[in-house]
């Protein structure tokens, strides 16, 4: 990047070094107790784990299992072909961003992550999976801030982060938490923390967007988000006969229905 990049409040991230918070655990004896069950499933999370995948301890809780990420990427191949840029607004350790890049559906994938150690892991993991340099544009920052600038203050974004809204789709796999997330038969998405369904939809509704949500999410709440005369598609994603999550595919309020 040039010396003039300092004039932009958000710009593409440089390649970040793996920090002390980035780990490639090789045995259960190394793993903190609260992520041992996830470590036992590491090859379902990243099939190439042994080839040098790194994650922060927090990232284990939120990474999408690889078969699910690949199926979501496959399903999103069927979205409006005029839209060829995908923004992964909660990039995490890279699971979904890598799947989208490998699908070859998108001319660009922009992956946003606000924690530098997690972003360093994602960049490393993309290399493990052979992602060509430049296919994923990494951003170290807050995705809500990025979208606000994209919609309202594009001059504050580095030119490489300015995209045509008519050519862009959002994917969001937010953190899941809040009262009842693990116990309620039907989860109230307006109680989800730290970002409720209202927070997410308010930020994203200008664009077509896909929300990766708990499998017990209240479908009625999702259905109400459809623009007038439009429908929301909801897909449950399963592994080994058990539902892992659902994805709600929501049209943007300004997008036109495909003929």
TrEMBL record:
Gene3D superfamilies xref list: Vaccinia Virus protein VP39
Pfam families: Methyltransf_15
GO molecular function, one term: RNA cap trimethylguanosine synthase activity
Annotated Gene Ontology cellular component terms: nucleus
Catalytic activity: a 5'-end (N(2),N(7)-dimethyl 5'-triphosphoguanosine)-ribonucleoside in snRNA + S-adenosyl-L-methionine = a 5'-end (N(2),N(2),N(7)-trimethyl 5'-triphosphoguanosine)-ribonucleoside in snRNA + S-adenosyl-L-homocysteine + H(+); a 5'-end (N(7)-methyl 5'-triphosphoguanosine)-ribonucleoside in snoRNA + S-adenosyl-L-methionine = a 5'-end (N(2),N(7)-dimethyl 5'-triphosphoguanosine)-ribonucleoside in snoRNA + S-adenosyl-L-homocysteine + H(+); a 5'-end (N(7)-methyl 5'-triphosphoguanosine)-ribonucleoside in snRNA + S-adenosyl-L-methionine = a 5'-end (N(2),N(7)-dimethyl 5'-triphosphoguanosine)-ribonucleoside in snRNA + S-adenosyl-L-homocysteine + H(+); a 5'-end (N(2),N(7)-dimethyl 5'-triphosphoguanosine)-ribonucleoside in snoRNA + S-adenosyl-L-methionine = a 5'-end (N(2),N(2),N(7)-trimethyl 5'-triphosphoguanosine)-ribonucleoside in snoRNA + S-adenosyl-L-homocysteine + H(+)
Homology family: Belongs to the methyltransferase superfamily. Trimethylguanosine synthase family.
Protein name per its UniProtKB record: Trimethylguanosine synthase
């Amino acid at each position: 990047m040039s010396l003039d990049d300092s004039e932009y409040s958000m710009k593409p991230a440089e390649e970040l070094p793996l920090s002390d918070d980035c780990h490639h655990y090789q045995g259960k004896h190394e793993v903190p107790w609260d992520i041992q069950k996830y470590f036992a499933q590491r090859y379902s999370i990243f099939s190439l784990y042994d080839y040098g995948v790194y994650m922060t301890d927090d990232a284990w809780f939120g990474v999408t299992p690889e078969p699910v990420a690949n199926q979501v990427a496959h399903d999103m191949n069927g979205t409006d072909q005029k839209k060829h840029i995908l923004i992964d607004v909660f990039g995490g350790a890279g699971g979904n961003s890598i799947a989208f890049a490998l699908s070859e559906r998108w001319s660009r994938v922009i992956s946003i992550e606000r924690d530098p150690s997690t972003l360093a892991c994602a960049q490393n993991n993309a290399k493990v999976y052979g992602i060509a340099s430049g296919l994923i544009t990494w951003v170290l920052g807050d995705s809500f801030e990025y979208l606000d600038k994209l919609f309202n203050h594009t001059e504050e974004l580095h030119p490489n982060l300015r995209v045509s809204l008519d050519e862009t789709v959002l994917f969001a796999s937010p953190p899941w938490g809040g009262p009842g997330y693990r116990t309620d038969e039907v989860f109230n998405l307006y109680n989800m923390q730290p970002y409720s369904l209202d927070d997410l939809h308010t930020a994203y509704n200008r664009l077509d967007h896909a929300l990766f949500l708990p499998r017990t999410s209240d479908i009625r709440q999702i259905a109400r988000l459809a623009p007038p005369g439009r429908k929301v598609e909801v897909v449950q994603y399963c592994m080994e006969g058990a539902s892992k999550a659902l994805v709600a595919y929501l049209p943007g309020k300004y997008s036109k229905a495909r003929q």
